[in-house]
Design brief:
Length: 82
């Protein structure tokens, strides 16, 4: 039950200022939620604290986050989008 509430919370947080980010983040969450570890879910939640411009640069491969844990989450998202 708690995990479902958490998914709903994360789905809400995936709503961004651009449709492109909405689609990429929401699709990743929908497809990967059940296979992500608790630690990965925490890092995904942390990723969602980032500004849209940062997210766009990271998810488009133009830049990398400084934090190694965020790099891992970004790499997982990008792997699903290729």
């Amino acid at each position: 039950m708690i995990k479902r509430l958490k998914k709903g919370y994360l789905q809400w947080r995936c709503r961004r200022g651009t449709k492109e980010l909405d689609v990429v983040l929401s699709q990743f969450l929908d497809e990967q939620y059940d296979s992500l570890t608790d630690a990965e879910l925490v890092e995904f939640d942390t990723l969602l604290n980032s500004q849209d411009t940062e997210l766009w640069y990271w998810l488009s491969g133009q830049q990398q986050p400084e934090c190694a844990a965020l790099q891992a989450v970004v790499a997982k998202i990008n792997a699903k989008n290729k």
